[in-house]
Design brief:
The complex is a heterodimer of chains A (430) and B (366). Chain A is of the alpha/beta class. Chain A is 28% helix and 28% strand. In chain A, the strands form four sheets. Chain A has a nine-stranded mixed sheet with strand order 4-5-3-2-7-8-9-10-11. In chain B, a hairpin with a 3-residue loop joins strand 1 (259-260) and strand 2. Classes of the chains: A alpha/beta (430), B mainly alpha (366).
């Protein structure tokens, strides 16, 4: 009986004392979903906080101050977001100032992304400002890092839920699309922290911008410019209108903690292909026999990359072999590329397209002195100890490296058709 | 009364493995990376091998004196006074170890989970459980350890498996870390990590003879070595050596990095579960052992009246370090690097003295 009583005591006592000091109700906090950072005017930094509020019909969570925007959510539910902007010498001085201004306490446990303005990223202050966030308990290392064109404040104000979702859900879903389109990479606080200090590779982040539809002229003469590489532009330049006002497209590249350049959506595809980050993606090449038409190709499988780094001599020599297989998605020209001998033409054209794309991206990154391809992870295999590796200094050697790429592509399938018959009209056979 | 209960090797191995392995989840991992870089995962296997070798002497000592614990053996070989002094040093050392580990646990918990709670609050609540557990006796502690070890193991494997998404094998390169010499030297010195296997000698009377002591001792070191090595390997695969050494609790950070979209993320609470239960068993078992040693030294037949004063002492010692930097930089470091002197050297010395003085226990079959 005594033992039972003791067991009961041991089991129940902790329940009465759990987290007395740290106990909080969910309504005590204003959960920040997006945090914007840029250089300030009145003080060193300008911080913008987006705090979404879900308000049901009956009750309402308290106000969070700032400029509130309401987005139509449908089904009797409103998805509302509030943004607050403040200037302060540091993030940790901004929080208490804001906490004295709003009825709830700011909480960053569910922070989805940190948005940094391009100006701020290029100033080299990421190391001072962003990486110390890895120390802050409330901010998880899985928080995504986004570099935005223009001001972070304006960008965050434009981030709205899509089709009745929550803001966090919209961001999450959009980030997932990186795996499908590979036009932008995904990086988080952990990547930022590691990347800025890494001896193996450079850090890169998602590049984003507001797209007001200015790149899509409503009127004009018909385009006759011929084939253009799809996605070869930066965020904000995508020729589209309507939809979300913000977009992720391209990559912001960092040398240490300073943004030194950016990659277009197409270059980002090449980067992710070389890194082995994606297994499936789509490309559109010019038709090898009718260059005015296009030939979309869908990559279904990327083999394990073969990367060889030769460190003998002054310049590292990088050799990359890339094996892919995929399907022809569409044949606009109706040329019978389905035939085995014709497939080879497509394969050779696609291999050249990929090799040229990778070479172009490599040259650009070499000029930026940033190994975003993870070649350092192959180079390190040549070293036995950390002092030897650090003495070699891969980050320093990379800009002098020589590069060679060989792509191998095999057409596996040709969609739902086995051959293409010519179009017949009164003018005769095509 | 200090009744010596009997229990099987499953219970003993479970409790000792938890007591040893739980430390890999705290600040030690980061320090290991700082010392040997990417070689931490096999450095700890060197430590385990060295600890096994040193434990061999304790086993031979316990085999030489069957049905005796190391405090009784100290008395037989060195005489009452010298033996008691040696035992007292061991008991006090254990108390210091618990106090430091306890404070380390409190500080890490405060950093990651309970930032607003005063350390004293966390410690008192925790101590309350430890005191009750100790009152219940050794059998309760070890049986509880056997009960939770499967859950802890499942949680640990779950966290490791889910972390596979963040594994980058090349981060374990260069394979020799800061140099083979440093790895071997630190591997030898850090054998103290497995020093808690000394518990086998303290609770020897509750175990089923030398053969089982052998199985428990070596088995505990082997399993703990595998757990420590796999945890160092896993976090080495997740964090590059540069940033891994900066982390307060790399394993917790590793768990918090798990992110399978909206479906599965924020897995750090699983780790809290491992931390709390594991630390609870560790502190309870070591606390019980230090009381056992103390009671033996001062010929106290009933250990229970000693529990509360010892708990107060433990609490007070735990509050001595000024903060986590002092706990890690000063105390934990000294214990991990030089603890083997108190953990293993006395057994070797006693065995040699016993051989010289031709002291031997009664035959097991007598």
């Amino acid at each position: 009986m005594r033992k039972l009583a003791l067991i009961f005591l041991a089991a129940t006592i902790p329940l009465f004392f759990t987290a007395c000091f740290d106990a909080n109700e969910i309504g005590d906090f204003a959960y920040v979903s997006l945090l914007g950072i840029e250089q300030g005017v009145e003080d060193t930094f300008r911080f913008t906080f987006q705090i979404p509020k879900s308000t049901g019909g009956a009750g309402s969570s308290g106000g969070s101050g700032g400029g509130g925007d309401t987005e139509g959510g449908g089904q009797g539910e409103e998805k509302e977001k509030g943004t607050i902007t403040i200037e302060a010498p540091s993030f940790f001085s901004a929080i208490p100032i804001l906490n004295s201004n709003i009825s709830k306490e700011l909480n960053f446990m569910h922070l989805e992304a940190i948005v940094i303005s391009e100006g701020m990223a290029s100033s080299g202050k990421i190391g001072e400002l962003i990486t110390p966030y890895a120390r802050f308990r409330e901010i998880r290392r899985t928080t995504k890092i986004i570099i935005c064109k223009g001001t972070a404040e304006k960008f965050i104000k434009q981030v709205a839920p899509y089709s009745g979702e929550l803001v966090t859900q919209t961001i999450e879903e959009l980030i997932k699309n990186s795996k499908k389109s590979s036009f932008f990479p995904v990086s988080n606080l952990n990547d930022a922290y590691d990347g800025t200090k890494s001896t193996y590779h450079a850090f890169f982040g998602t590049y984003a911008a507001i797209n007001e539809g200015e790149k899509l002229p409503e009127e004009g003469s018909v385009y006759e410019g011929g084939y253009r590489i799809p996605g070869d532009y930066y965020a904000g330049d995508v020729p589209r209108s309507n939809g979300q006002k913000f977009e992720f497209f391209g990559t912001a590249v960092f040398d240490g903690d300073k943004m030194v350049g950016k990659l277009t959506g197409f270059e980002t595809q090449m980067m992710m292909l070389v890194r082995g980050d994606v297994k499936r993606m789509s490309f559109t090449i010019a038709d090898p026999q009718k260059p005015e038409l296009v030939l979309p190709i869908s990559i279904k499988e990327v083999d394990k990359l073969k990367v060889q780094v030769d460190i003998d001599g002054d310049k590292p020599k990088i050799k990359l072999e890339l094996g892919m297989e995929g399907d022809i998605a569409i044949i606009q020209s109706r040329i019978n590329y389905e035939k085995p001998e014709m497939k080879k033409i497509v394969e050779a054209a696609f291999e050249k397209y990929i090799e040229d794309g990778i070479n172009r991206t490599f040259q650009k990154c070499r000029e930026m002195k940033c190994d975003v391809f993870n070649f350092g992870h192959s180079a390190v295999k040549k070293f036995l100890t950390i002092p030897e590796w650090e003495e070699y200094n891969w980050i320093d050697k990379f800009p002098n490296s020589e590069f060679e790429v060989k792509a191998n592509f095999t057409v596996r399938r040709t969609g739902k058709m086995l051959k293409s018959m010519p179009v017949l009209s009164t003018e005769g056979k095509e | 009364m200090n009744k010596e209960c009997k229990f099987g090797y499953h219970e003993a191995i479970s409790s000792i493995v938890i007591t040893i392995s739980i430390r890999a989840f705290f600040t030690s991992a980061g320090r290991v990376v700082e010392m040997v870089g990417t070689a931490g995962w096999y450095m700890t296997l060197i430590s385990a091998a060295v600890a096994s070798f040193l434990f061999l002497f304790m086993y031979l000592l316990l085999k030489r004196f069957p049905r005796k614990n190391i405090m009784q053996i100290n008395d037989i070989v060195l005489g009452k006074w010298a033996g008691s002094i040696l035992s007292f040093i061991l008991g006090f050392f254990l108390l210091i170890i618990i106090a430091i580990n306890f404070r380390e646990f409190t500080e890490v918990l405060k950093i990651y989970v309970l930032p607003d709670s005063p350390p004293s609050f966390i410690m008192i609540i925790f101590m309350l459980g430890v005191v009750i557990q100790t009152f219940m006796g050794l059998e309760t502690i070890v049986r509880y350890a056997k009960f939770v070890v499967y859950m802890l193991l499942a949680g640990y494997i779950f966290v490791i498996l889910l972390s596979v998404q963040n594994f980058k094998p090349t981060q374990l390169l260069p394979i020799l870390g800061n140099g083979l010499d440093k790895t071997i030297i630190n591997g030898f010195l850090r054998c103290s990590f497995y020093g808690d296997v000394i518990i086998v000698g303290i609770i020897a009377l509750s175990l089923q003879g030398p053969q089982e002591i052998k199985k428990i001792g070596f088995g505990s070191i082997l399993i703990s070595g595998l757990v420590a090595s796999s945890s160092l390997l896993a976090f080495g695969l997740v964090f590059p050596y540069i940033t891994a050494q900066e982390l307060t609790s790399p394993m917790y950070e590793m768990a918090s990095l798990i992110d399978y979209g909206g479906f599965l993320k924020h897995m750090d609470p699983i780790f809290l579960f491992l931390w709390n239960f594991g630390s609870f068993i560790e502190v309870s078992l070591l606390f019980y052992c230090s009381i056992l040693v103390y009671c033996h030294v001062f010929r106290i037949t009933d250990y229970r009246p000693v529990i509360i004063p010892m708990a107060t002492l433990l609490y007070s010692i735990s509050l001595i370090p000024r903060g986590i930097s002092e706990v890690i930089g000063k105390y934990v470091e000294v214990i991990r690097s030089w603890g083997w002197v108190i953990y293993f050297v006395p057994s070797i010395a006693i065995l040699i003295i016993a051989a010289i003085r031709k002291k031997k226990g009664e035959s097991e079959n007598a």
